[in-house]
Design a protein that fits this description.
Layout lengths: L2 H16 L3 H14 L4 H13 L3 H15 L3 H13 L3 H14 L4 H13 L5 H14 L4 H13 L4 H14 L3 H14 L3 H14 L4 H13 L2 H11 L2 H23 L2 H32 L1
Helix pairs in contact: 1-2, 2-3, 3-4, 4-5, 5-6, 6-7, 7-8, 7-9, 8-9, 9-10, 9-11, 11-12, 12-13, 14-16, 15-16
Amino acid sequence: MIRNDIRKNFELANHYSNTGKFKESEELYKLIIEDGTNDYGAYVNLANLYRKYGKSLEAYEVSLAAREKYGPDLLIDQFIYFYFLDIHDYVAAEDMLLDCLELDPNDSSMLIRYADLLIITGCKDKDKIKYFIEKAIENDPNNNVVLQNCINFYSLKLKYLKDLNFLLEQFFESQIDEFNKYYTLGLVEYEKRNYKQSYEYYYNAFMIRPNNQTILYLLNELKFKKSKFYILRMLVERFGGTHLYYGLLIVLSIVCDFIGLSSYSKYFLMITAFITVYWLITYLIISLSYKKLLKENH
């Protein structure tokens, strides 16, 4: 393959990749790699192509081959890290990130991924996580990936709300993609459990990209969560669920019966019966509506 053919095939492979033609793109990248000259970009893009289509193992194997040929490299090693993350080998994932940070201690993408890994593995040292996040921002304050991860972290820790608002301002100033803006706002409101507002933001994102499966899933979930029956059911469950509910009914019935029998008053018995039936009907309505909503959601 002559040099011009390599460049032409590389450009065509990139075009196929961007237009969703997986097989055609894969074949051209492999052809360039088989030729063995100027194939670094083909290795990286092929690994990225596999990653894009959920073929984590294939991306890992291509990255290993590239690493054997070119040595440790940030672009290549990130796919190895992703593979370890996918198979939940967090020790190997951390080792790979540390290797990357040895190559470039100031790489914001690797710093933010290390912070993300600490969160995933349940690190209790929030100051350590915050250190890597702030260092990533300091090194690259306009990096959308960095800002997005920072927002995700601060959304989960609402005590940093002041920092979150500052980051949102930075993110929107650097972000030209309207979809990402609405998606991020939806995420923040979701973490605040403001499901109605979150639904509106996600719906705006859906109108921009109606085929995005993640947004469709989130809209479906939020339609379920913002239902009044879901809220009522959650209130019941929060205060002890059905066992506590029926327990209160029994205790109340016994007390009212005891008072009613001791005073020979029929009114207490009538009140007992009314309250018992009313509570049971209310709970049944909530439960049946909840089950119906759950079935529709699935």
